[in-house]
Amino acid sequence: xxxxxxxxxxxxxGNVVDMAxxxxxxxxxxKIVSSFVGDVVMPPxxxxxxxxxxxxxxxxxxxAAGDAPAVVLAYGKFIQSIIDFIIIAFAIFMGxxxxxxLKREEAVAPTLPPVPTKExxxxxxxxxxxxxxxxxx
Length: 137
Prior knowledge:
The chain is mainly alpha-helical. It is built from four helices and two strands. A two-stranded antiparallel sheet has the order 1-2. The model has no long low-confidence stretch (mean pLDDT about 85). Keywords: Cell inner membrane, Cell membrane, Ion channel, Ion transport, Membrane, Transmembrane, Transmembrane helix, Transport. Belongs to the MscL family.
């Protein structure tokens, strides 16, 4: 019973739940970014470089022989991964930059001191009158 109660205490801690939510959102965001890179960004880049599909670039080091598969150096997939990384890193950088700007604007926004209520003003006047009376010889 002790192990189960310890696990329950661990699993319902705020940090674990926050981490789980972050991982789930991160996985969903990863799918969005992968689609953005593969379906939106890479086709125009492929057109700009002459219709080359980076994923198909490879060099055959040893041809297939019998049951042995061919040995292929798929450098195009590596190039694609590098481009994906650069685009994802740039997207994250821009997102963090926007968040930091919003935080700075929020911190810079002046906060006006609270306006005293009528009661507070009257209490302040009474305090000042009492101080004046106590200071008289």
